[in-house]
Amino acid sequence: MTDARRLRWAGERGLLIDVSEGENAHALASWLRSSEHSGGLVEIVPGPRTVLAVADREVLDLVAQDLARAPVSKSRPLTGEAVGVEVVYDGADLDLVCQQTGLTRDEVVHLHSSATFLVDFFGFSPGLAFTVGIPERLRVPRLGSPRTNVPAGSVAIANEYTVIYPGGTPGGWSIIGRSVSPPLWDPRRSPPNLINVGDQVRFRAVGP
Questions:
Q1: Among 100, 168, 192, 207, which is least packed, fewest CB within 10 Å?
Q2: What total of structural domains would you count in the chain?
Q3: Which Pfam families does this UniProt record tie to the protein (predicted)?
Q4: 114 inside domain
């Protein structure tokens, strides 16, 4: 264990690694996948500020030793697929976002559709991908009062993230549009998801 990272046991077969200040969790996960004892790892799950390694305890003990010489990288490796999503920017909170940012509707659409987003992790609902990459000028807080049901396909933003709601779920983010592309998550499909952690996402504005 190093001074920069904190390691915690997560059950009998999990090691939860809190990354150091400024360190990129996905870069550390990529390093673990190529480390000396990666062959014994069952799963490596990066989050916003953590990496979960799953394996037998003996392997995890060795992984903890490996971490002592793992480099600290602040940049995220771009190794995923590029995915395009077509969006009609007519969301219920688009005007609210304009008020909060001082931007016009056209400026909001341009900023959002010009950025490249990265799938950071999946959230509380199956298929709910948190994509990071909102430009600074477009960052807004969560809504003061969340909705009890957000329609599937809604494109919503909060802080540095954009999500596309995969189904009717509660949500407290500002809805700026709706996806008209095939759903990124469909449990009837095999595999059900069209994007994975590490993929790049670009949103393209289309007409209603």
A1: 207
A2: 2
A3: CT_C_D
A4: yes
